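Task card 7
Instruction: Convert sequence to structure tokens.
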Amino acid sequence: MNLTLNNLSSTSSLKALNEKPLLVQVVVGILLYVNGLMIFTFLKKETFRDTRYILFAQTLFVDSALMLLADLTLMGMFYQYPVPMIPCYMICSLMTLLSLCSPITLVAMCLERYVAICLPLRHASISTPKNTSIGLLIIWGVSSVLPLFILIVCFAYLPPGVMFSYVACSVEIMLQVKWLADMRAATLQLLFIMMLCIIVSTYIKIMIAARSASSENKKSTNKGLKTVLLHGIQLLLCMAQLITPYIEMPLWKLDVMLFINVRYSDFILFVILPRCLSPLVYGLRDKKFYNALRYYAFCGICLVCNQHKIRDGKTLNDTLSISIHN
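Output:
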């Protein structure tokens, strides 16, 4: 009797464990489709070449790439698929770069909203294509410093015989040197405090501007205030993802099943959830972008409907242009 109960318990546990990869693939697939559709919408319309939309598009690209790589490494750990050490280091370094690039881009988006609301007369002169390009280079440059340093140190400490070995790829592989792991944690904490201070100060200044704004501008200012608040929540979740390896590492030696369950939970909370907020902040709350997104999402339906609605020589592009600008 006890043997039967144990078999049933182990069978149900194995079934529950096997359902998790399928659930993750469905969620990741849906988010990648939504992000891809938004990137396609951004590329198709010249009206979305403002600084805030460019930063939004970069966020979508970075989030999509990070979700894809994180999902691949998660599945590799689940099935214990061996990967050569050098490609594993490259993938983990790229994931760290993307993990840093996402919150730094959020800070840049908050600063853009601050300039647009608190310094409206200078917004056009500050948010120029040249300044936007410089800002993007700064974001990618700052994001690449830490992962590049860790990659160089790991190769320096890696024994020659281990370089061509195979491992189940994970970020923990690059945190075996204690002082390097401590340095990484301290750097991330310092970076998080700096970014949080910028977002909080931006929120306070926009809130002050909202109180003194006229009734006509109050609605726009309050919307910007909510946008900055959502970015602050995203920042907390994104930075929490960077410290999850330090929580998961001790569990690997204690209980493999517990390690896998905690990793799945961290993946949902700190990788998937922050990436769900990005489409919400601009893709659904921004009316102009939402109108264009809705058109491209239901292109076939809209095409049939507009064939019956277009009159007096109006083209389909004119109709789309009118719907976007309204």
